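Standup notes, protein team

Yesterday: finished cleaning the Diploptera punctata set.
Today: EF-hand domain-containing protein structure.
Blockers: none.

Input for EF-hand domain-containing protein:
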Amino acid sequence: MSDFRRKKLLHVFNVFFDVNRSGTIEKKDFELAVEKICKTRGWDKNDPKSQDIKDILYKVWDDLQKRADVNQDGQ
């Protein structure tokens, strides 16, 4: 893998998945992503749009965990 491709993948991992920069992907990252998106958009947590984003991102987390969390440690 080229150095450019490695850097690009690390960027995507750090920006879009490992939101809390713990080095792993866990549900907390998706919770933080929901908070950031809603805050950026100015949506209250009771706004239906906030719930839609939460539902979508939690589904992504659930699917990712089912497929990638081989040892089922939540990361």
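Follow-up from PR in the comments: The CA atoms of residues 64 and 70 lie 11 Å apart.
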